[in-house]
Amino acid sequence: MTYSIKEVADMMNVEPSTLRYYDSMGLLPGVKRVNGRRVFEDKDFKWLRVLNCMKKINMPIDKIRAYVKLAEKGDSTLQERFDMILEQKQIVLDQIAELKDCLKEFEYKEWYYTEAIKAGTEKVVENVTTCSPTLEVDTIPKK
Amino acid sequence: MTYSIKEVADMMNVEPSTLRYYDSMGLLPGVKRVNGRRVFEDKDFKWLRVLNCMKKINMPIDKIRAYVKLAEKGDSTLQERFDMILEQKQIVLDQIAELKDCLKEFEYKEWYYTEAIKAGTEKVVENVTTCSPTLEVDTIPKK
DNA sequence: ACTTAACTTAAAGTTAACTTTAACTTATAT
DNA sequence: ATATAAGTTAAAGTTAACTTTAAGTTAAGT
User: Fold this and answer.
1) If you average pLDDT over residues B24-53, what whole number do you get?
2) Å from the A77 CA to the C15 C1'
3) Model pTM?
4) Distance between CA atoms of B85 and A108, rounded to whole angstroms?
5) Of A74, A88, B5, B20, which is most buried with the most CB atoms under 10 A?
6) Nearest to A102 by CA among B83, B55, B61
């Protein structure tokens, strides 16, 4: 089975021009051409899925390219690639932890506005949290 | 207790120039001035913590400013702000779910390289996953 | 008192990641 | 057959979010 650039772009929720840009940056190694046109094959999706993840965690294009270059060098770079993957895995874990903290803040705000709307004014909830001068405070009121 | 722009910048892990930029964009309402200098008070940290979260989930500055403007209008905008918070909460939840999928991919890659390094070559693991032409596939090998 | 560090603004500069344009070729549908 | 849609490249343009610069004022340390 083969796929056009538009079909792949739709699957990845990006513009075809974005895929061409990725290609020009060296992020789409080994994609076949037929009459000059890119033809994506099943084997390409293996990498596209990883690329998709790397993009989602905001890994810079330069770093992704570095990974691709290592992969192209073959087995001699296995350890280096492993190290990069471990580093990125830790970054995802950190990002998830960070977002969970943000979620708490938004859940607090949800509660805050629920109470304020009930009362018709913010004054009722304005001083529920003791605001110490740090950004690390965790104050989720129990329902 | 009061804090200089540098002190607040350090707490938020940003440059003072970034805070000045946020201020110029209307993201730091109600910050006092003494001889022209910004002086941050305890009350400001309440908002800084929320701002911090909004930045972390990549909420665009324009949207954050819209929220600030609503807050400045007072109680008549409670419902609108509640709706915005709910929307952002859903965005965080989606982002967390997305990152968890990425984590699986990196965990698979970790396993992949562990096996490849053991064998000295990628050939051993290259075709472990059946790669269907979708980016939604989930293939985590059980240890 | 004097030096150094930190603060100020307005405006210009930077960066990453696309996105658009122009000029062209190839494929698909009627 | 012919129009329309989709593909191509290289190069220029865009956007968001800072970041730096320049020129100045204010505060803090010795």
Assistant:
1) 97
2) 30
3) 0.88
4) 10
5) A88
6) B55
